[in-house]
Design a protein that fits this description.
The chain is an alpha/beta fold. It has 9 helices and 15 strands. The strands form 7 sheets. A 3-stranded parallel sheet has the order 1-8-15, with no helix packed on it. Strands 2-3 form a two-stranded antiparallel sheet. The longest helix has 22 residues, at 121-142. The N and C termini lie far apart (41 Å).
Length: 265
């Protein structure tokens, strides 16, 4: 029987960028100091990564938070980066188009940041693929070209660090194949930058194409809950799972870990 170094991702209650990295840390698959150096590697002075533990349903999980210099921390909701390009005529969200350069970062600038980073080549390549998928999904949902997609200034920092950390995690394990469980997307509606949308909102729905999805677990009682973020879905899509399975695949478990997001469900 052929043996493969397999990475299995189980979507217990969805997937998000911070949860992805937290699970690798919890499993001991990546060095915490390596993860905490990521902001420096992508030239974001003052941005730090906080690694802690938290309880969810009386079980211990690892949690990762990106801390911005102004004191804010990221969460699992990364919709603040949704946007249209400054090339759009008229205004967006009540702001004149010329304000975009101050409040937003174009997709191309984020690509350049990653290309100029000191990330390992494999980690950099993975991060660029994740952002390409994100930009294409956002562009499709807004009816613009990917180069016109802009990311909210703070959201761009959260997202680029989350994606870069995911690249570091992927490169550290270098799996020969990736398997995943069906994805939990959520239900009800969610408020994002452009208004209230059904779950999954447009970009997430586009990223979910081709993926098996599952209903919200019975233990989650919230009527309106988004379990998987665009960044998390883009990471999963970039991993290109060999196949999706409802249960753990056969083999020997070498490491196991779980990451918590910002919501306590």
């Amino acid at each position: 029987m052929t043996s493969y170094r397999t990475l299995f991702l189980e979507s217990v209650a969805g997937i998000a960028g911070d949860m992805f990295t937290a699970a690798f840390l919890d499993a001991g698959l990546v060095d915490p100091e390596v993860i905490q150096k990521v902001p420096e590697l992508i030239h974001l002075p003052g941005v730090t990564v906080d690694i802690s533990h938290t309880l969810r349903a009386e079980a211990r999980f690892t949690r990762v938070q990106v801390i911005i210099p102004n004191g804010s921390r990221d969460g699992s909701n990364d919709h603040h980066h949704v946007g249209r390009g400054a090339a759009d005529s008229g205004s967006q969200e009540g702001h004149p188009a010329h304000h975009h350069s101050h409040h937003h970062q174009p997709y191309r600038e984020l690509v350049e940041r990653l290309e100029d980073s000191n990330l390992d080549p494999e980690a950099r390549s993975f991060a660029l693929e994740v952002f390409r998928l994100l930009a294409e999904a956002e562009a499709d949902s807004h009816g613009v070209a990917p180069d016109q997609v802009v990311f909210h200034e703070v959201g761009a920092v959260d997202s680029v660090v989350d994606v870069a950390m995911a690249g570091v995690c992927f490169a550290s394990v270098a799996p020969e194949r990736v398997l995943a469980s069906p994805v939990k997307l959520g239900r009800g509606s969610v408020k994002i930058q452009h208004g209230t949308y059904p779950v999954p909102p447009p970009a997430s729905a586009r990223l979910a194409r081709g993926m098996p999805v599952a209903s919200v677990p019975d233990g989650i009682e919230r009527v309106n809950v988004e379990l998987s973020t665009p960044t998390g879905l883009a990471i999963l899509k970039a991993l290109n799972p060999t196949f999706f399975t409802d249960g753990w695949p056969p083999g020997t478990v070498e490491a196991q870990g779980a990451g918590a997001g910002s919501m306590d469900l």
